[in-house]
Design a protein that fits this description.
The protein is built from four helices and three strands. By secondary structure, the protein is an alpha+beta fold.
Length: about 110
């Protein structure tokens, strides 16, 4: 999946290598650990300006866990599951919103 998406980003949308960050579980230097995923999200949104285009593609496992702050009608937070979830935990939707949406300036 990620090879295809990188090809599209580069060939169709003219993205440069420096504008792409990829994590994958078959490369020891690119492991999708919780820390690496969160750092990549910050990399994507840090310095964002109105009018910027950003693209995020996630091809991995997701799940649900008990909602601890009461903001989900279902009582469950949706999650991304990093490769080290057993030691680092899952990434909940509240954290995704905070990192990927709430931090963006108007116009992004």
């Amino acid at each position: 999946d990620s090879d295809t998406m990188i090809g599209v980003l580069k060939e169709v949308f003219q993205f440069q290598d420096s504008q792409i960050r990829r994590l994958r579980d078959d490369r020891k230097d690119m492991m999708p650990t919780k820390a690496n995923i969160l750092a990549s999200f910050r990399w994507l949104t840090d310095g964002a300006q109105p009018g910027d285009d950003m693209f995020l593609h996630y091809s991995g496992h997701g799940g649900q866990q008990r909602d601890t702050n009461g903001d989900e009608a279902s009582g469950q937070d949706d999650t991304l599951i990093p490769c080290d979830f057993q030691s680092a935990g899952q990434i909940i939707d509240d954290e995704l919103y905070s990192l990927l949406v709430q931090q963006l300036p108007k116009g992004c």
